[in-house]
Amino acid sequence: MKTDERRKLIDSLTDDEVWIFYASCEKELKHRNLVRTRNIVGERGEFLVIKTYSEIPGSPNLQAAPEGTQNVDALSRKGERYSIKTLSEPGKLTGVFYGCGNVGDSVVPEKKFEYVVVVIIDSDFNLKKMYEINWEQFLKLRRWHTTMRAWNLSITKNFVNEARLIYG
Question: Does the domain spanning 39-167 belong to CATH 3.40.190.10?
Answer without folding.
Answer: no
